[in-house]
């Protein structure tokens, strides 16, 4: 009888897993920009240049994966779509077949982090994909399954892969290093020391080797000369960054208006109140980790989250990177949410509330993402025939930033309306993302500084008519 109930309980998660795969794959078709942003074009450009990349601003891991899938589909947009589909399906099938926290994994896909990274063409997708398996091999170490050194070697190879996908992987490596110090000097637990030392040694050699390759090939370690120094940071942007870090704890809500108006800051402070409530609730379960055999595993996840979040925060104040948001802090949120879910299911046999909340926010995230709907494939089909005229162009520039499209939202209950300018839905931005995905050899540029204008494809030369 108990076995029957367990199987019945898992059935709804299996059904939901199939729904998730469909939602993740299909929803970007109903966005005007199709999940393709400026960074996506940079990755496409690097992939198109292989095997002779011209820059190390981004590591080569994601572009190599894109190029592999491009061989199959001969299109970088479709390559990114099916790569994300592969990540999603592989994690879910692996989790189910290995019985590695399948219910928890399905709920991870109902949160903001996996929803965001696996529905856009971004390096966070493969980074989080690899991170999931890093968790798996560390889990194997701490539950004592198999050879500790064998699992440590596997984890170290995953760690090297993460660094070749995103340079911020070094913060995960630093977190494991600090965790090993915690075990050795605070807990005085030597049982796992050799395995962790092996992990750090192999990972360290691999990371150093990749940095050496970059220096020999490009003359820099991580394209640091291309990023430039951060400008003066106004107090309002420091506040927005801190609010972004605080939002790391929230598994579902990551709404952050681009505006820095008083209304926007007030809204973010409201989100902060929700974040505090979530933290207090999660803390009830985090405290119970000491009673479990996986205490060290949870501590590792917490250290990873903290080191990653604050390392990014501080580095963002010294170089030109995005402010702290869902994308930047995806790895930290992933760690905290996974830890909570493991503990939640360990102490709760009734999953009705967490299940309902997860389902609600999967619907919410989908609808919120479609708040400014469009037809990406239609837009793409209008631009595609025009690109044959511009094969000799070398650069792509959006010269239509003055053409502004504003979306009006009306709330009938309170009879109020407000207008919002969606960055990725602007006419010039749409043309840029579509043209850049169709021919990544034409490199997009932020400023129109090219002297020979005949080499530049201006978005105004493309038409949706």
From TrEMBL:
The chain crosses the membrane at residues 15-36, 76-94, 114-138, 158-183, 195-213, 265-283, 295-314, 326-347, 353-370. Keywords: Membrane, Transmembrane, Transmembrane helix. The keyword Membrane applies. The keyword Thylakoid does not apply. This is Dolichyl-phosphate-mannose-protein mannosyltransferase. It comes from Chryseobacterium defluvii. The lineage of its organism: Bacteria, Pseudomonadati, Bacteroidota, Flavobacteriia, Flavobacteriales.
């Amino acid at each position: 009888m108990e076995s029957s109930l367990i199987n019945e309980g898992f059935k709804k998660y299996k059904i939901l897993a199939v729904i998730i795969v469909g939602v993740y794959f299909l929803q970007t078709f109903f966005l005007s920009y199709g999940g393709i942003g400026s960074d996506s074009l940079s990755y496409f450009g690097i992939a198109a240049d292989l095997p002779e990349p011209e820059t190390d601003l981004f590591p080569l891991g994601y572009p190599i994966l894109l190029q592999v899938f491009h061989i199959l589909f001969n299109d970088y947009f479709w390559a990114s779509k099916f790569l994300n589909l592969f990540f999603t399906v592989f994690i879910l099938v692996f989790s189910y077949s290995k019985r590695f926290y399948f219910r928890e994994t399905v709920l991870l896909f109902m949160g903001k982090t996996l929803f965001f990274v696996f529905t856009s063409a971004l390096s966070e997708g493969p980074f989080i994909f690899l991170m999931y398996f890093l968790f798996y091999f560390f889990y194997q170490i701490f539950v004592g399954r198999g050879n500790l050194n064998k699992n440590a070697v596997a984890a170290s190879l995953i760690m090297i892969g993460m660094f070749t996908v995103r340079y911020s992987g070094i913060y995960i490596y630093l977190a494991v290093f600090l965790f090993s110090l915690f075990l050795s000097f605070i807990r005085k637990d030597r049982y796992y020391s050799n395995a962790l030392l092996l992990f750090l040694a192999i990972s360290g050699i691999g990371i150093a080797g990749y940095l050496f390759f970059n220096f020999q090939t490009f003359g820099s370690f991580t394209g640091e000369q291309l990023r430039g120094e951060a400008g003066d940071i106004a107090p309002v942007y420091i506040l927005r960054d801190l609010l972004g870090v605080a939002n790391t704890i929230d598994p579902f809500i990551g709404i952050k208006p681009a505006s820095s108006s008083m209304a926007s800051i007030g809204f973010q402070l409201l989100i902060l109140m929700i974040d505090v409530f979530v933290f207090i609730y999660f803390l009830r379960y985090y405290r119970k980790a000491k009673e479990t055999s996986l205490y060290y595993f949870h501590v590792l996840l917490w250290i990873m989250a903290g080191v990653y979040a604050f390392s990014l925060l501080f580095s963002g104040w010294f170089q030109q990177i995005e402010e702290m948001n869902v994308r930047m802090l995806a790895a930290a949120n992933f760690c905290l949410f996974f830890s909570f879910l493991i503990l939640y299911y360990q102490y709760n046999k009734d999953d009705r509330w967490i299940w309902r909340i997860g389902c609600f926010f999967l619907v919410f995230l989908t609808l919120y993402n479609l708040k400014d709907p469009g037809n990406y494939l239609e837009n793409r089909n209008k631009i595609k025939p025009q690109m044959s005229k511009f094969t000799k162009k070398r650069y792509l520039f959006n010269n239509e930033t003055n053409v502004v499209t504003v979306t009006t939202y009306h709330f009938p209950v309170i009879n109020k309306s407000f207008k919002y300018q969606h960055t990725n839905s602007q006419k010039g931005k749409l043309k840029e993302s579509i043209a850049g995905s169709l021919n990544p050899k034409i490199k997009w540029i932020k400023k129109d500084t090219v002297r020979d204008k005949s080499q530049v494809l201006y978005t105004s030369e493309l038409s949706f008519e």
